[in-house]
Specification:
Pfam families: ADP_ribosyl_GH
Protein name: Ribosylglycohydrolase
CATH architecture: Orthogonal Bundle
CATH class: Mainly Alpha
Largest sheet: 2 strands, antiparallel
Binding site for Mg(2+): 56-58, 262, 264-265
Shape: globular
Helix content: 55-70%
Distance between the termini: 10 Å
Family: Belongs to the ADP-ribosylglycohydrolase family.
Structural class: mainly alpha
Number of domains: 1
Number of helices: 14
GO molecular function: hydrolase activity; metal ion binding
Number of strands: 2
Length: 312
């Protein structure tokens, strides 16, 4: 792991903290209409009963990923991946909300199963339905880049794909998570947004399509992708539109919430990239304080673990 500057460490922490803030902020607006630009989203009780400032499944599913990195394990290690799935299964027993695709896959995996059974479950659900491109893989991918800030970027893409396919098998998930993780890494290292530079992380036959999708998002508003933002591609575009048109991490997550529909997820995705670009310290205390959603873990602890994951 490279030695990071204070600014880079702050941006690493921002990746998880701003994502959690977006998740909690968007929770009260989930499945609602798009909002006008003069509407300021506020924290409130979530659609599924989450308390004010409590994050949802988007951030909760990222916690076990982050913890494997804190423990020094690689996300390409089957032991780390099976540990993540085991913790997801434990969490899902009494979670207020678990995505439909994720719940189906977790329900097919026997307790204590290894990677063969996990892969069979994920691919089996995809084969049974012919699709598995919900946004549940992209919403949790933010921490993945923290373990791959040096070395070949293709290693990061491989890890993002491996984590995505624990529950979401379709290629759209693999590509979206690789692109997003690459942009998060770039943001942490350089403090800037550059999604087009990540297109080489997508296999060549699919690259032109993603280049067009990225171009559409960079010149749009999250509202433009509201109707289908439960699909990983539209969630990706909505979140990218939120960040590309923003001037701060708070602006980014508020723009994502104004997009409507799956607001907590799009804002969580946007927050992971906005935090990587602008950092944790750029998020006002009004939106950083009081975040919670995992036993013993609040926003402060999330940020601390992110710093540990990158070697601080």
């Amino acid at each position: 792991m490279p030695t990071l500057s204070p600014a880079q460490l702050d941006r690493a922490a921002g990746t998880v903290l701003v994502s959690a803030a977006g998740d909690a902020l968007g929770s009260a607006y989930e499945f609602g209409p798009a909002l006008a630009d003069d509407v300021t989203p506020v924290f409130g009780r979530g659609h599924f009963g989450h308390a004010e400032r409590e994050w949802t499944d988007d951030t909760s599913m990222a916690v076990p990923i982050l913890d494997e990195l804190v423990a020094g394990r690689s996300l390409t290690d089957p032991r780390a991946l099976t540990a993540i799935v085991t913790r997801w299964q434990e969490w899902a027993r009494d979670a207020l909300d678990v995505g439909a695709q994720t719940r189906q896959v977790l329900g097919r995996i026997p307790a204590g199963a290894g990677m063969d059974a996990i892969t069979a479950a994920s691919r089996g659900v995809h084969d049974a339905t012919g699709r598995s491109a919900g946004n549940g893989s992209l919403m949790r991918t933010g921490p993945v880049a923290l373990g791959f800030l040096d070395g070949p970027r293709q290693d990061l893409a491989a890890a993002a794909a491996a984590v995505a396919r624990l529950t979401h098998w379709e290629d759209d998930n693999v590509d979206a998570c690789a692109l997003w993780s690459g942009a998060v890494r770039h943001g942490i290292l350089f403090g800037e947004l550059d999604m087009p530079a990540q297109l080489d992380l997508v296999p060549a036959p699919r690259r032109e399509r993603w280049a067009q999708l990225v171009d559409e998002a960079l010149d749009a508003h999250p509202r433009d992708f509201r109707e289908a933002n439960g699909w990983v591609v539209r969630a990706f575009q909505g979140a990218l539109a939120a960040v590309s048109g923003a001037v701060s991490p708070l602006d980014a997550i508020e723009r994502a919430v104004r997009g409507g529909n799956d607001t907590d997820t799009v804002a969580a995705i946007a927050g992971s990239l906005a935090g990587a670009v602008w950092g944790a310290d750029a998020l006002p205390a009004s939106h950083a304080d009081g975040l919670n959603g995992w036993p013993g873990v609040d926003g402060v602890e999330l940020a601390r673990r992110a710093r540990v994951a990158v070697g601080a």
